[in-house]
Amino acid sequence: MWDCSFRKIWELRAGSHPTDQKKTLFIVDTLQLKPLAIFNKDGMEQNVLAHERIVSRIISDNDTLMPISPLKRSFDEMDKVVCMKCVPTTAPGLERVLVSSPYAKLIRRHQYVELSPDVYKMLNNDWEFHSQVRYFTAKVLSGAIMHNTRNGQAIMANTVEAYGRTKHVDAHRETFGKEKDASIITSIPPSIDTMYPDVWPIPKCAPCVGSKCMSFQLTTTADSMSTKIYLDLTCLQEGLTMLASPQTSYMSSSNIIYKLRQIRSKFSSPNAYTLCRSSGPITKSHTCHPFSVFTLADYDRGKNPGAYLFRAIGVLVLKHGEGAHLPRNNIEEWASLATGKIKTILLDILRLYPSANNDIPILKNDALNKYLSSLADLLMPSIVAANESVAIQVAQVFDFVV
Q1: Which of 33-37, 65-69, 387-391 has maximum average pLDDT?
Q2: Contact of 236 with 260, CB cutoff 8 Å
Q3: Which residues contact 398 (CB under 8 A, 6 or more apart)?
Q4: Which of 11-20, 160-169, 257-266, 327-336 has the lowest mean pLDDT?
Q5: In terms of Cα–Cα distance, which of 54, 53, 59, 89 is closest to 72?
Q6: Strand partners of residue 143
């Protein structure tokens, strides 16, 4: 009976007369058959049909098998589609991610394309000669979906920070070299064939994806050799516009200070204030952006004089560049409000002023940077606590369309 049924389904496969296609769908529904994807060790996929009870039973304990999402429109409804542009399309391979995602309806409102050879070549352009690539990188990866084809797990990069490879282009580059008796593990792509040449997802203590010229931070682990990357089409288009202009120096004129990366040192370096942090279209509201030392002052549940200092420094550098100076009267005001170790650091900063009427430079000021780095460490518990509220905001955004 089963062999006969499957033979009949095969004979009435897609491409035959519409009446026969309807018969095929009737047979599948009557037998309660569900499509099933089987993946080999290389991530290659084969599809079969099985009874829905069998599908449910075997996928629960086998990470190489997963159900395939049925079509979202019935056969009859296909005739009602006016044009392809009127219907959001799903990138090949992404459909099996959506079938098990509780946020499928929300994600389907956006269009995605897989990372292409042209794009990963662009990601590897040298920052020293193509400075706009840092903004392009953060923009095109924000909102991207990373899919581990071996176990079916997927994550979305809601917020991305781009970092350069060398100290000449980024003071906060990823360190490399020898550490004790071993070399430091980095996100630099290996010299082997990978899914995306010179683009390498790597699980670290803070998992990231790297290219030859930069790395960008993510929030969970992925199997490097079997991870596919799908880009949000809107972010890709905006990123390509930035890449076309060598004069690009920021990604958006809204919430500019939220484009600064979360850093804890080297505040005296000009490139520490590069605006290469970007959030995807689903989490574009500033309430969904993780707090940094520069934005902690915006947190509604607390008043921290140290946070006010960092916000002021960020704004001053973004407005005045190397001409940015820190007014003494601001430090005096914040020191009067502070307590404990933060007060001590602010008083130490006050001693850097040569007189009551002078300001001190922010950039290339190693003495000031020393105190700012210590202050940033003291703010970390507050940032962690504030980001718990961000996690709630992000969850609410994703649950809005379920």
Answers
A1: 387-391
A2: no
A3: 103, 106, 282
A4: 11-20
A5: 89
A6: none
CA angle 32, 37, 40 (to 5 degrees): 150
Q: Which helix (H) or strand (E) holds 316?
A: helix 305-320
Q: How confident is the model at residue 345 (pLDDT cuts 50, 70, 90)?
A: very high
Asked if 112 and 229 count as a contact pair (C-beta separation under 8 A), the reply is no
- Phi-psi domain of 255 (left: phi exceeds 0; alpha: psi -120 through 50; beta: other): left
Residue type present at position 312: A
CA dist 145 and 158 (Å) reads 9
Give the per-residue pLDDT at 182.
66
The span from the CA of 336 to the CA of 325, in Å, is 21
The C-alpha angle with vertex 344 and arms to 342 and 349, in degrees rounded to 5, equals 95
Q: Does residue 58 surpass a pLDDT of 60?
A: yes
- Taking CA atoms, 389 is separated from 15, 106, 262, 400, in Å, by 52, 21, 17, 17
CB-side neighbour CA atoms (13 Å) of 345: 22
The strand pair at 227-232 and 277-279 is best described as: unpaired
Contact yes or no for 290/388 (Cβ under 8 A): no
pLDDT attached to residue 171: 87
HSE-up of 395 (CA within 13 Å, CB side)? Answer: 6
Using DSSP bridges, classify how beta strands 208-211 and 199-202 pair: parallel, antiparallel or unpaired. Answer: antiparallel
- Provide CB contacts within 8 A for 175, sequence distance 6+: 184, 186
pTM of the entire predicted model: 0.72
Listed residue (233, 262, 272) closest to 390, CA to CA? 262
Backbone angles phi, psi at 188, to 5 degrees: -65, 130
| CA–CA dist 141, 163 (Å, integer) | 13
Mean pLDDT over 174-196 rounds to 66
User: Percentage of the chain with pLDDT > 90?
Assistant: 47
Query: What mean pLDDT is predicted for residues 236-249?
Result: 94
d(CA 308, CA 173): 26
Above 70 in pLDDT, residue 29?
yes
Q: How confident is the model at residue 172 (pLDDT cuts 50, 70, 90)?
A: confident
| Euclidean distance between CA atoms 400 and 153, whole angstroms | 22
Alpha-carbon span 163 to 274, nearest angstrom? 10
